[in-house]
Write a structure and sequence with these properties.
globular
Length: 262
């Protein structure tokens, strides 16, 4: 289902607003809320997620936009069963990469830090990022490329590239090599999220997998030093490159099936 020009314009503006709020953390990041040893910016960022949700709801309701983003239970269980295993495997390999790179650990976090900073925060990240990167931006690109036979592939690749580059601000100061490796890994991750979204037309599938993969970064709650060892980066880039290649096969198979139907 495509979009008309008015819908594309409204959703593109909404997408840019959400992206700005997500990347900068504004306005709520200006607050500082301390709960035990939880990073004082985490709660404000989570409040920002809620504000983003309210803004998105009001915009969609005001302009009467009913585009099917995929917030439904239809196909959810089947989609997770069919496409979830590769993502789980990638998450486990990510955990191993982080564990190897951070060991020995030098911090004992509170339960609050583990639950809020290590789990709940990433659930919010997954919901917000999947909504505006896949639900909004990917579908906008696909609608703009409606005359192309491979419009879905184009949309997945473009949205994944933007998804990867959008993580650069959070890595400033980590060094060019670390940023490059992380961006490539994140692009591969984005290709996976975009592919399983379009294969299932259910946005909860990439949201759940996104949250799960991010939660596998839990080892960072057990250290005071945020670092990426070369071995960790190598594992990550191999893992998410392989995941992207797997998605390439899925999309190729889908295109071949479409051609056979003609």
């Amino acid at each position: 289902m495509g979009m008309d020009k008015k819908t594309i314009t409204i959703l593109l503006i909404l997408c840019l607003v959400i992206a700005f709020m997500d990347i900068t953390g504004l306005p709520c990041v200006l607050l500082r809320i301390r709960i035990a040893d939880v990073d004082p910016v985490i709660i404000p960022l989570m409040i920002n997620f809620c504000l983003i949700g309210i803004i998105a709801f009001l915009v969609l309701r005001f302009f009467k936009i009913t585009y099917p983003f995929g917030f439904t239970t239809d196909g959810l269980a089947e989609g997770l069963k069919k496409y979830g295993l590769p993502g789980i495997a990638a998450g486990i390999l990510s955990f191993i990469a982080f564990f190897i790179g951070l060991y020995p650990f030098d911090y004992s976090p509170s339960v609050y830090k583990i639950l809020i900073e290590g789990i709940l925060y990433y659930v919010g990240v997954a919901i917000v990022e999947e909504f505006y990167v896949r639900g909004l931006f990917l579908n906008i690109v696909e609608s703009l490329a409606y005359c192309k036979d491979n419009k879905t592939v184009i949309a997945i690749l473009v949205s994944s590239l933007v998804f990867g580059l959008g993580h650069i601000p959070g890595m400033i100061g980590m060094g060019i090599a670390v940023i490059a490796f992380k961006v490539i890994s994140t692009i591969g991750m984005g290709i996976y999220f975009g592919t399983i979204y379009k294969k299932t037309t259910n946005i909860w599938v990439p949201i759940i997998m996104h949250a799960l993969i991010d939660v596998f970064a839990l080892p960072y709650c057990f250290t005071l030093n945020i670092r990426y060892e070369p071995v960790s980066l190598v594992i990550l880039i191999i893992t998410y490159t392989a995941l992207a290649l797997y998605c390439g096969l899925l999309l190729r198979k889908n295109q071949d099936t479409d051609k056979e139907k003609l």
